[in-house]
Amino acid sequence: MITREADYSVRAILYLSSKWPDGYPIAASILAEKMDIPYRFLRRIVRKLADGGFVVSERGRTGGVRLAKAPDSISLYDVLDAIDPKALRFNACLDAQTADCKRQKNCPVHTELRALQSVVDGKLSEVRFSQLEC
Question: Residue 54 to residues 75, 92, 111, 117, 118: CA-CA distances in angstroms?
Answer without folding.
Answer: 11, 27, 33, 24, 24
